[in-house]
Write a structure and sequence with these properties.
The chain contains six helices and five strands, in the order βαβααβαβαβα. It has helices spanning about 20-30, 40-55, 60-80, 95-105, 125-130, 135-149; strands at about 5-10, 35, 85, 110-115, 130-135.
Length: about 150
């Protein structure tokens, strides 16, 4: 019997190595997981709209072009995912990650949140919708190991 390959979408904070730690941890355990993600190159993501559709004088329209294109990628990957992991980092307000979490839940996808304890209060509603809240990427790997065994 062929083992199902899980599709896990990694959403959120792009300034630390949490994605790599999860990917490497699943590989080390031999888990059958494929990962998808938003574009993690901040400049490439922010500038995709004007790079393809033309420049904008107003940052609102520059951002609007980029978010429209990026949302095609994000919504497609979330809809195809078996599980969505949403990382909230301590430094920036990640409104896009909160949106991804809500979109995933509304799409019937289970989510795991990943954040430090100081964000427990501001993320209480999102954590309530999550199936698990992790503090470290390695805990996500342990959950995946459990789910796939």
């Amino acid at each position: 019997m062929t083992q199902k390959i899980w599709n896990v979408y990694l959403s959120g904070e792009i300034h630390s190595d949490w994605r790599q730690r999860i990917i490497e941890g699943t590989k080390a355990q031999g888990l059958t997981v494929e990962f998808t993600s938003a574009v993690t190159d901040h400049d490439a993501s922010d500038m995709v709209g004007v790079n393809i559709l033309g420049s904008e004088e107003d940052n609102f329209w520059r951002d609007r072009k980029a978010s429209g294109i990026n949302s095609i990628r994000t919504s497609t990957h979330i809809k195809a995912a078996d599980l969505v992991v949403v990382r909230f980092g301590p430094k920036y307000k990640q409104w896009n990650a909160a949106f991804d979490a809500g979109f995933a839940v509304a799409s019937g996808k289970p989510i795991i949140t990943l954040h430090d304890a100081e964000l427990d209060h501001p993320l209480k509603e999102i954590d309530e919708a999550a199936k698990a809240t992790c503090r470290h990427p390695e805990q996500v790997v342990e959950i995946l190991s459990y789910l796939l065994s």
